[in-house]
Design goal:
The protein is mostly helical. It has six helices and four strands; from the N terminus they run ββββαααααα.
Length: 250
C-alpha cells in the first residue's frame, strides 16, 4: 500500500491510498469488488448506448446513432488497416469491444468523481488502473491470437514454433504471451500514473493547475485504447499470415 498525505502540523487534510481494495469472497475466490462495480457500469453504459442507437435507427443518423455509427466505422477502418480486406470482418466485434471498453473505462476514471462514493474499503476508479483487468484483456488477446492462427492454418499453425529449430520452442511460446502482456502493463501503468498525478495535484493545488493535466490525461487515455486495439489486431494478423511470410503477386 502506498499513502500520499498532505498534513500541516500533523493534521491530515487529505490522503490518497493505493493498495486498499473492496474484496468479495466468491467460493474459494477473492475478487476486487470495486473493479467489478465500475466494469459493470462501463458495460452497462455501452449496452444502453447501443440500444438507444439501434432502437429507432434513421437513414440519416443523428445524436447517439450518429456517434455509435462513427465509432463502428472507426473500428472497422482500424481493423481493415491491420488485418487486410479479406480477413478483417470477423474480427471487428472483438477489436471494437476491446477499444470501446478500454476507452470508456479510461475516460470514466478521468471524468467521473468516483472518489465521492464511499466504500467500506478501497475506492472506485477506472477498471484499467487495476493490473488484473489489463492482464485479463491481454489473455483474451492471446487466446484470439492462437484461435486466429489455428482457424486459418489448422494444426500446421503450430509448426512455426519449431522453426528453424525445435530448441526455440519455449521462447516462441513465451513470445506469444509476452507481447500482449506488455500491452497490459503499459495500459495499467499509464492509467494508474495519470490518476495518481491528478490526485496529488488536486491535493496540493486544488484550483486551476490540475486542469491541463486532466485534459492531457483524457488525450493519453484515448491513445492507450487505440494502441491496445491496434496492436491486438496486428498480433492477430501476424498469427493469420505467419511470421515473416510474404504475399506473392500472381
Amino acid at each position: 500500500m502506498l499513502n500520499f498525505l498532505v498534513a500541516p502540523n500533523s493534521f491530515p487534510l487529505a490522503s490518497l491510498e493505493v493498495g486498499h481494495h473492496l474484496y468479495w469472497q466468491i467460493g474459494n475466490l477473492k475478487v476486487h469488488g470495486q473493479v467489478f462495480l465500475v466494469s459493470w457500469f462501463v458495460i452497462g453504459l455501452l449496452v444502453i448506448a447501443s440500444l438507444l442507437a439501434t432502437r429507432n435507427a434513421q437513414r440519416v443518423p443523428r445524436g447517439i446513432q450518429n456517434l455509435m455509427e462513427y465509432a463502428l466505422e472507426y473500428v472497422r477502418e482500424l481493423s481493415r488497416n491491420q488485418l487486410g480486406e479479406k480477413d478483417y470482418r470477423p474480427w471487428v466485434p472483438f477489436i471494437g469491444t476491446l477499444f470501446l471498453f478500454i476507452f470508456v473505462s479510461n475516460w470514466s476514471g478521468a471524468l467521473i468523481p468516483w472518489k465521492l462514493i464511499k466504500l467500506p474499503e478501497g475506492e472506485l476508479a477506472a477498471p484499467t488502473n487495476d493490473i488484473n483487468t489489463t492482464v485479463a484483456l491481454a489473455l483474451l488477446v492471446s487466446l484470439a491470437y492462437f484461435y486466429a492462427g489455428f482457424r486459418k492454418k489448422g494444426l500446421g499453425y503450430f509448426a512455426k514454433y519449431i522453426q528453424p529449430t525445435p530448441i526455440l520452442l519455449p521462447i516462441a511460446i513465451l513470445e506469444d504471451f509476452t507481447k500482449p502482456l506488455s500491452l497490459s502493463f503499459r495500459l495499467f501503468g499509464n492509467i494508474l500514473a495519470d490518476e495518481l498525478v491528478v490526485a496529488v495535484l488536486v491535493l496540493l493545488v486544488p484550483l486551476f493547475v490540475p486542469l491541463p493535466v486532466m485534459l492531457l490525461g483524457l488525450f493519453t487515455s484515448a491513445i492507450q485504447a487505440l494502441v491496445f486495439a491496434t496492436l491486438a489486431a496486428a498480433y492477430i494478423h501476424e498469427a493469420i499470415e505467419g511470421h515473416g511470410e510474404e504475399e506473392h503477386a500472381p
